[in-house]
Amino acid sequence: MCTLEKRGNIFILTLTGNDEHRLNPTLIDSIRAALQRVRSQANGPSALITTAQGKFFSNGYDLAWALSDKSRLKFMSSKLRSLVSDLITLPMPTIAAVTGHASAAGFVLALSHDYILMRKNRGFLYMSELDIGYKVPAWFMVLLKCKAGSPAAWREVVLKAAKLRADVAVEMGIVDSAHDNPAETVVAAVKLGEDLVLRKWDGHVYGENRKTMLADVLAKLGFDETVEVGDNETPPSTTKHVSRL
């Protein structure tokens, strides 16, 4: 599911394996357990890096699991909102080293970090809901607006379902820097984490300031809103999403 490595005051959380790292309760619980370990093991100023093995950072919700029972989408939404809350309230800087595709809820997972670093030669950020026939949850949009200030960027992501490569995402202000390959992306993330740790900020104060900055997101996380099928009420094909990657 995931591993957690501690290098001094840098924590590296890695989604393991070569699958799509689709977000289901099992994977989300594994990530949340790792974040709890980060909280308990942090000793002084620290930073978290989240990355993934293989072609995908995360291909979003595990729709094959969720659509087998109508109650599962709400359950999975609740789990994801709890994970996002955990990241927003973590008392240290957080960095997503996106080394593969990050789609839909996987894109949201990346956006839930303070910084996003991304590889150039493969992978994209993709809010796929329009293409697969889902409505974008309001809290997804609030998070996007907090992280990307341009209405043009919102339109590209939500109303065009654009697949953003690293260089374009940097131009839009969604990604902080682009790197040649996965290894260089992680190395750059570690360097950024080390630079931030050297500032010796109080983690509690850092987390409280982030909570203030993202107060609109936290307020939306309290609503039991989930991804919904469009007006035709026909569940979208999960294979369509995969075939486009």
Set down the secondary structure blueprint:
Elements: E1 2-7, E2 10-15, H1 25-41, E3 47-52, E4 56-58, H2 63-66, H3 70-88, E5 94-98, E6 101-103, H4 105-111, E7 115-119, E8 125-126, H5 129-132, E9 134-135, H6 138-147, H7 151-159, E10 163-164, H8 166-171, E11 177-179, H9 182-197, H10 203-213, H11 215-220, E12 228-229, H12 238-243
Parallel strand pairs: 2-3, 3-5, 4-6, 5-7, 6-8, 7-11
Antiparallel strand pairs: 1-2, 8-10, 9-12
Which keywords apply here?
single chain; alpha/beta; 2-enoyl-CoA Hydratase, Chain A, domain 1; 4-stranded mixed β-sheet; 12 helices; 12 strands; Delta(3)-Delta(2)-enoyl-CoA isomerase; delta(3)-delta(2)-enoyl-CoA isomerase activity; EC 5.3.3.8; ClpP/crotonase-like_dom_sf
Order of helices and strands: EEHEEHHEEHEEHEHHEHEHHHEH
Could you give the distance between the termini? 22 Å
Shape: globular
Query: What is the domain total for the residues?
Result: 1
CATH topology: 2-enoyl-CoA Hydratase, Chain A, domain 1
How would a crystallographer describe the biggest sheet? 6 strands, mixed
The order of strands across the largest sheet is 1-2-3-5-7-11
Mean pLDDT over all positions: 91
| Total beta-strand segments | 12
CATH superfamily: 2-enoyl-CoA Hydratase, Chain A, domain 1
